[in-house]
Amino acid sequence: MKKLIKGLREFKSSYFSANEELFEQLSHGQKPRVLFITCSDSRIDPNLITQAGLGELFVIRNAGNIIPPFGATNGGEGATIEYAIQALDIQQIIVCGHSHCGAMKGLMKLDSLRVEMPLVHDWLKYAEATRRLVKDNYSHYEGEELLEIIIAENVLTQIENLRTYPVIRSKLHQGQLSIYAWIYQIETGEILAYDPQKHAYVLPQNQLLSSEIDETLLSPPLNSNVEIHFTKTQQRPFQSSGELPIPTHEWFPMTVLSPEQMERIYRGSATK
Amino acid sequence: MKKLIKGLREFKSSYFSANEELFEQLSHGQKPRVLFITCSDSRIDPNLITQAGLGELFVIRNAGNIIPPFGATNGGEGATIEYAIQALDIQQIIVCGHSHCGAMKGLMKLDSLRVEMPLVHDWLKYAEATRRLVKDNYSHYEGEELLEIIIAENVLTQIENLRTYPVIRSKLHQGQLSIYAWIYQIETGEILAYDPQKHAYVLPQNQLLSSEIDETLLSPPLNSNVEIHFTKTQQRPFQSSGELPIPTHEWFPMTVLSPEQMERIYRGSATK
Amino acid sequence: MKKLIKGLREFKSSYFSANEELFEQLSHGQKPRVLFITCSDSRIDPNLITQAGLGELFVIRNAGNIIPPFGATNGGEGATIEYAIQALDIQQIIVCGHSHCGAMKGLMKLDSLRVEMPLVHDWLKYAEATRRLVKDNYSHYEGEELLEIIIAENVLTQIENLRTYPVIRSKLHQGQLSIYAWIYQIETGEILAYDPQKHAYVLPQNQLLSSEIDETLLSPPLNSNVEIHFTKTQQRPFQSSGELPIPTHEWFPMTVLSPEQMERIYRGSATK
Amino acid sequence: MKKLIKGLREFKSSYFSANEELFEQLSHGQKPRVLFITCSDSRIDPNLITQAGLGELFVIRNAGNIIPPFGATNGGEGATIEYAIQALDIQQIIVCGHSHCGAMKGLMKLDSLRVEMPLVHDWLKYAEATRRLVKDNYSHYEGEELLEIIIAENVLTQIENLRTYPVIRSKLHQGQLSIYAWIYQIETGEILAYDPQKHAYVLPQNQLLSSEIDETLLSPPLNSNVEIHFTKTQQRPFQSSGELPIPTHEWFPMTVLSPEQMERIYRGSATK
């Protein structure tokens, strides 16, 4: 605690002092542009990894970055999502899993949790779709590789859950909401973002290096509530006309994931 | 999004590059010392305000830094608390409210939320003890002042709720857990910590300026399950022998809160 | 039934006849001073053991004298507590466990209840903090001794739960409510009351033998929401000024519990 | 509190001393014959009014002697009923309402409770069948008379609810359980018991004056789950053969209720 309390003093004398105007302004209200949903894991600092300033990220954190489907729980997730979309008019949501996730490891040995950590056990029920999908489709993987797949698929599972909320469903229908699937890799300090065209997690920032694409997130088609709006490497997920997404292979040099990794992640979606 | 994605690149090339060893180490596991429970509000960055490093804070964030009583919900809060205490062996919990909290404003106009934001409305049930206490005891306050009181009392309400969790109750009994009540004031960049002896929120860091007290959190009294362990200004809430807490008035120059603020926080009890 | 019906006649011709005025008076309303929460066990008669008259005790009875945390159930406990505090303005609550409690025995063999008595099994969830605390701290006890510890700790657990109710929290804050932890020992016909200073259950009546202390329950410390008001052996838990409680060892001859019993109840905390 | 604590001492020195053998015996276990469900009202002392000894009555008490239907709540009522029937093998249940019941008064002004006592408001949902029946069938009554009808009908409502519990249903089917509807009248000190043949609440003890009938509760017919087993004045509710109950008017001089009262109570059942 002493360290933290020294930190408070340090923060006040350095960061706060240098940015007093910002704090004055923030005290009048927040206008965050992104709802960032991630794990409670101590190794994640959303503001640090995105270099986002104060006031930019509205944050939900729980074990496993899990979002129970609408109506399934009466915990804080639903209320906080509703507040973000309805009261703050946030139009972008990032669901961010991460490597070495303890909750996802728990999903691999669920039975042992029943007695030891009953609340965690019950909570992982809302990642059961992940567990089942991986069990049915990736049975030949194990260990670290299996964990990576679980982590990657779970973010997609949670986005499916997220889509069941009334406010989310309505905003998606209006084309006023984009949802992104990210995975933070602790060992490389990198984010991989899901690319629905490629059905793979890819490095989003490569794109910005090579091109200065307009980042405006164009409206998804009217029926977009049946299509997930993931982070696109090219920052242009769908055309405004409501047409199908165009393949973007040529200007996306996918060098990040190994072919094996690609193949693995691909498999989950390839069944579609 | 473009800004965030640029931020990712920046983070990788600057912070990550400068701390590769840390990340390598973190990839092998986390060992956070503190569970930090705070609001989703975008103006709060727990790591920034405490200057805590990666790996130090295990974080729960939801609208209003609310912890439903054990058994009252099946959301992520209980599971994440259980994981923090049981799996990570965390021994210090900070519940941190903040000024200008939108959820607490909602508590002041609960009826209007029923239709507009039903999930938020239902979620605020777990702050009902706050609403009731403030209604019964601070009816002569209004506006900003009333909001401040609600925020301050709500942190204490949530600590009452926290104490009903089996893992919490057991660890408190063993004297292996300390719980601290904090309020982050956006406009001053300061934390006020609840001092149970003074029954007031005070600046914790003053203490460290004037004395170099060993920060080891000594054991709470025998059967600590009847005493809450709040953040003490002197960082030594109770003596290790299990004796009663000693008054610390002499070496605590209470200059932070204005007399009016003090009087206000006091008033609730002063009517006795 | 015949016996009971004969009893009704007997009651009418003896007790009722001798106290007609009392009944006339009671028919105009009740003004009980104490909410007495105890087990359904047939061996407990709250009015008999306290020699309280009709109209004095408002009584909640269920298996295990359990009070689920606020919001955790929609059973009668919360409503009855609310009615007692809000409508009847009761200012003293006794939570009274008892020796040989069948529900607490159930807590020791929870698994076997799942199939045989599913409602009892689920109900005992609200004593899970007791089970966990005892499992973690008293693992070297068994049989009758273990049961005694469970019974004693459970009363304290239920008081933690009780404190999460809005009406309770507000009244505690105002210093208008005192909560007492009792255990009724069937074999000796005695009540042991929890003494928070001694962290032990002691005989309350010894006190009254040796001193004629004003029984007025003085105000708890300011912000009593951080201090539980247990039954004090000396009937004067805290000084009215809001100062810290005074030790009362000198005038409390602790002769009731055997050293072994004392040691046992102490041990949970002694490991610190 | 001083009074209660003096009472404890008194109880120990008088009643306990005179009955030490009984207490010794009780410490080995309980074998109550009756589950007595009544209101928390301080003016009711089940053991006093029935002159039942310690160990005879297993008692549930909540506001309004309400038993939510099976599955409707997760409070203590269901678990305690299950324990009584399954673990203690109790074969007789008395649901005992009483005159001047505050909870039933609440049923007459439900809307005003929503804000003031929300838990009580929600709890009275399980007496909604009473409220509706009375509203639909007794609209021409008001004040005290209406309250009496509500109290009388509510006991029957709660018995309907009681019959939904698996253990109750099974035991009724086996003819091993009898359920009695009582009303305790504070002003007269008398119990009225529901007589299903007469469809009226009557004085049960009159019967025992005039005859020495075998009290054995004979098995109800196989389909007894569609017939409530109320207290019969003649202590012989149904014949073992499964025939319909015989009218018993000749040896039951119904002098207690006025014809108007009879008519009123009759009406509720006359619709059958």
UniProtKB/TrEMBL annotation, chains A, B, C, D:
Q: Which Pfam families match?
A: Pro_CA
Isomerase as a keyword?
Answer: no
Q: Which domain of life is it from?
A: Bacteria
Query: Which residues take part in binding Zn(2+)?
Result: 39, 41, 98, 101
> Keyword Zinc, does the record have it?
yes
Q: Tell me, what is an example of a GO biological process annotation in this record?
A: carbon utilization
Group of enzyme by EC:
lyase
User: Which subcellular locations apply to this protein?
Assistant: Carboxysome
| GO (cellular component) term, any one | carboxysome
Record's PANTHER family?
Answer: CARBONIC ANHYDRASE
Q: What does this protein do?
A: Reversible hydration of carbon dioxide.
Q: What is this protein called?
A: Carbonic anhydrase
Q: Which organism is it from?
A: Nostoc punctiforme (strain ATCC 29133 / PCC 73102)
